[in-house]
Amino acid sequence: MTDRRRTAVFLSLFCLVILYSTLASESESHQDSGSSDNKEECGCKQSRNKEDKEKNDVTESEADDSSHTRFYQPKTGDTLYPRTNQMVYIPGGTFTMGTDEPVFVLDGEGPGRQVKVDSFYMDKYEVSNAEFELFVNQTGYKTEAESFGNSFVMENYLSEEVKKEITQMAAAAPWWLPVEGADWRHPFGKDSGIKDRMDHPVLHCSWNDAVKYCEWAGKRLPTEAEFEYACRGGLENRLFPWGNNMMPRGEHWMNIWQGAFPEKNTGEDGYEGTAPVTSFPEQNKFGLKNIIGNVWEWTQDWWEVKHTKDFKDNPKGPASGTDKVKKGGSYQCTKLYCYRYRCGARSQNTPDSSSSNLGFRCASSELPKYLQTDTKDEL
Ligand SMILES: [Ca+2]
Ligand SMILES: [Ca+2]
Predict the structure, then answer these.
(1) Which CATH code fits 93-141+199-375?
(2) Is the pLDDT of residue 23 over 80?
(3) 234 C-alpha vs ligand 1 centroid, how far in Å?
């Protein structure tokens, strides 16, 4: 147990303007091509167990095209909160997974390779506290963070009282702290709660917890290929689900970090922490929300970084490993630190690890009966 819980870290005057712009661009490109090592600086790799290319060809208008979206509304039943367990239909196809222009080479973002994915269903939203509470109330499930008695939280979100009790930290990412009593009901330590954040994504769920929840919901975790296919929304070689412009029409379409990380989060996108799972526009034609940003999301696959360009049919990743793949980046990611709120980006954690910026959503090959409009089944 001790070993498993090891804390594992951006015309002369005219010519001058052009020259400056070029230098700035090269500087930015140099920063982007930095090593994978700065992932710890947003906590992307941190776990309990171990310590641009923005092009002008904006295609965000396609994100308004919801004609391909088939939306499934569950029965509401006697729940205290509006249900957010709806699924959308993702028609199968072949796409370019990964990229030949990796930002973080050591993450295994490349090469771009042709991958076929069968049609499937995907949760429209990240799993919320309200949905997870239904699961716990029905099953009595205890999460791994609750069993361990602690989980990782970024220092900025802790009260002074909680910070006083911290006795250890990870050298590579000192702003990530193992907090006693942090779990899904107490996301920022024992003096915090979820009463006012029932529509926010559930936090501090390990991969193992996520699997149990999805099983209860008659679903499963998406494979990495399914997640990336759903994220890309039918667009080829784009950074974001809607295209390459980080702020389409000058608007924020995802919950990330604005300001100098980790000192200052200006919250210009409306949220310094997590956002409700229903917030922000649908990010692509599949109707998915927060598929990038807000919280990282677990996938089924074991982590590996070496990929071939060989065609793959519904890949499920390696047969075994030590870490699981997570996708989408989080509210703690900035471009200079953890530029991983891109569909082709990826990171990893051990399956028993949990933190305050990691959640999940479920997928399914078949639509659960209780989500079908012609049934009275409820969940
Ligand atoms: Ca934000
Ligand atoms: Ca997300």
Answers:
(1) 3.90.1580.10
(2) no
(3) 26
